[in-house]
Design goal:
This protein is of the alpha/beta class. It contains 16 helices and 13 strands. The strands form 2 sheets. Strands 3-2-1-4-5-6-7 form a 7-stranded parallel beta sheet, sandwiched between helices.
């Protein structure tokens, strides 16, 4: 009997894709990977497992544009005709999964990436229609939190065909301990020698509007004027780079901010463990992987009060919330965290405990196969 052939179709190649594909490679399925676009900067530095075969097609060579949809749809039909997959897993909903739905292929397991249901589905009438169309033609759907489940049900996806599980993190890699070799930028050395108990904030999100990094930059400028011991580690990069750098330059605070750029998976835990507080101002998230990584490393958190974050952070236990999009609220929360720094070790322990309870990738990812079972039995 021939093996089951899976086509995994996704937007780009991220750390999430790496983990799903690596897990699928161990199932015994024959797994093929199809990439919709390449955004021009690295999102994951680990190579595909040798068991995974990447499919070369008309897409995956630049950013996705709706103008290309007819050409991509035609070539996707060609790929399906030649590859003859037994199941396609695809997401986000309005792009990769939508294209598969348009081909008429079944069984389709759609995978929500959070922002597709939380933001994109409400942008305009076409995307609302595409969301409903995709879910109506999906045999099953997976999402990473209850907020996503509720949104999918609101768009007509039957509850019994939705599988919900946090994507989780590797708890053996993201380990809870205070780092013995903290990440300290060279330009901080003289300042920290004089500063009383430097306090380091960490941002790891991409520099795109959806992640609110501009808000973090502006709030940091305001808070740093009150608390000179504040430092900021700002990982990543993106389209807002000129704006972000200008904010710090205009405030003459560039020497108190470090920009490590893209940090590979191997080095990420050291940054989380070196920070006093993880900060995310994202306007849309399901179960944020970077939040779970921070929690697994015992780093207290300060996050926007969006539904996905509220499923993970209890104010005063693992960290705090602030009002989404409110720079003054974020500034005040940062200052409050500095003033309450004696509480942070206990919050870090609570964060790790919750990660162990609910965010263990090794325990969570087999839930994906429940969606496959639903699809194959339909």
């Amino acid at each position: 009997m021939s093996s089951v052939r899976i086509l995994y179709f996704t937007r780009d190649y991220t750390s999430h894709d790496y983990r799903f594909l690596t897990a699928l490679a161990k199932t015994g399925y024959e797994v093929h990977y199809l990439r919709l676009e390449s955004r021009g900067y690295p999102l994951e530095d680990r190579s595909l497992s040798p068991e995974i075969e990447q499919v070369h097609w008309a897409g995956g060579r630049g950013r996705f544009s709706w103008r290309d949809s007819p050409r991509l749809l035609g070539d996707l039909k060609r790929v399906i005709r030649i590859l003859k997959p037994d199941l396609i897993q695809a997401g986000p909903l309005q792009t990769a999964a939508f294209l598969v739905a348009l081909t008429g292929f079944r069984p389709l397991v759609s995978m929500s990436w959070g922002y597709d249901l939380l933001l994109d589905a409400d942008r305009n009438a076409f995307l609302r229609w595409a969301t409903r169309y995709t879910l109506r033609h999906s045999t099953a759907m997976i999402g990473d939190c209850n907020t996503i489940r509720q949104r999918a049900e609101g768009f007509g996806m039957p509850a019994e065909r939705i599988v919900t599980f946090p994507w989780g993190v590797d708890l053996q890699h993201f380990v809870y301990k205070r780092d013995q070799s903290p990440v300290i930028s060279d330009q901080w050395a003289a300042q920290d020698a004089e500063a009383r108990q430097p306090f380091t904030l960490l941002s790891t999100r991409g520099w795109e509007p959806i992640y609110g990094v501009e808000l973090i930059a502006r709030a940091y400028v305001q808070a740093a004027r009150q608390r000179p011991e504040l430092r900021l580690l700002m990982l990543g990069n993106g389209s807002q780079a000129p704006l972000i750098h200008r904010i710090f330059k205009d405030a003459e605070l560039e020497n108190r901010v470090s920009f490590p750029g893209h940090v590979g998976y191997t080095d990420l835990p050291r940054y989380y463990r070196s920070a006093d507080l993880y900060v995310s101002a994202s306007h849309s998230d399901g179960s944020s992987i970077s939040l779970l990584e921070a929690m697994a490393c015992g780093c207290p958190t300060l996050v926007s009060d969006i539904p996905g974050n509220r499923e993970w952070v209890t104010p005063g236990v693992q960290g705090w919330w602030f009002r989404d999009g409110d720079v003054n609220a974020l500034e005040q929360a940062v200052v409050h965290a500095v003033e309450e720094r004696s509480c942070l070790p206990e919050m870090g322990r609570a964060a790790r405990a919750l990660a162990e309870q609910r965010a263990d990738w090794d325990k969570n990812y087999p839930e994906l196969l429940k969606a496959y079972k639903i699809a194959f039995n339909s």
